[in-house]
Amino acid sequence: MPPPGGCSINVDSSDESEDTKSLIQNDPAPPQCCSARLNLAVLMFLGFSVVYGLRVNLSVAMVAMVNATNPSVDRNTSVAPACPLPPGTENTSDTLQQPDGTPQYTWNPETQGWLLGAFFFGYLCTQIPGGYLAGHYGGSKFLGLGGVTFPAMMAMWARWAPPLERSRLMTLSGSGGAFGAFVALSITGFICEKLGWPAVFYLCGGAGCFWALFWFFLVADDPRTHPRISEEEREYIISSVGAQGTGHGWSVPLLSMVLSVPLWAVIITQMCFNWTFYTLLTSLPTYMNSILHFDLQSNGFLSALPYLGNLLVSLLSGVAADALIERKVFSITV
User: Fold this and answer.
1) Do 192 and 200 contact (CB within 8 A), yes or no?
2) Helical H segments across the chain, by residue range
3) How many domains does the chain have?
4) Which domain holds residue 158?
5) What is the pLDDT averaged over residues 7-27?
6) Helix pair angle (36-65, 176-195), 10° resolution
């Protein structure tokens, strides 16, 4: 039974319009192995890994970029650190030893905070218009250029993901962010110590350029225009997604969106998740260094552990969600 003002993809009614009729089909699905939709999910996973590697490497590299022996900082303050220094390190320098010629900066904590937060000013202003444009023009260009990644991903899966596979395909692709954060946090400290902090940005940027070559060559916005998809898979995706796989045009039902309680539930939940996710992503390495006094390599590894858990839970939850939908345990509004 669909809720008021919505419809359920578990419900089938001859009175429903083309846009709202049941999307779940009983026809057997083409195998996912080596399919175009699975290839898309894997490429998205790798793309999100690179994007979040680029986002998180500054958090760890910042520890190496800042000169902790800056004489303008009063180290003889009467305020004790939150955690005592390890025995034998009270009179030693906190400066990380890096290759000769590696620059360091005398940024105070306030300046470091502005630098770590600068990314989010652009992020705040581009998500809604980016998602709107991705829905109209297709998400591959926006995601390939590394811009509005999550809105572009949603726009692409609206056209590519069959309802019974949507949760696991989206969680597989989106969990690349947790994987990228885990890998970047784990190895950034080692790279800073061996090659210097500038190498972190060159390596991550090079990986992004390399990934983009495959992305623009192998990916299409719509299964209808994909040159290498099988006819069986193309027909399966088009028939299961239905009219939802077409562009939304320029008109947006703003009033209906503002008055939609389920939409606000999703927005508030996502805001709470993003607050904790990005707070840890940007601030945890600095906290581990300044307050808990971990060395850079241990700092990176320990800061990465929450994202390993995030990765595993995301993948399992996607499989579980699709299983619940297939068994019609929950009614899902669209």
Assistant:
1) yes
2) 36-65, 109-137, 140-144, 149-160, 166-174, 176-195, 197-218, 231-241, 254-258, 261-290, 296-326
3) 1
4) 36-69+94-326
5) 46
6) 40
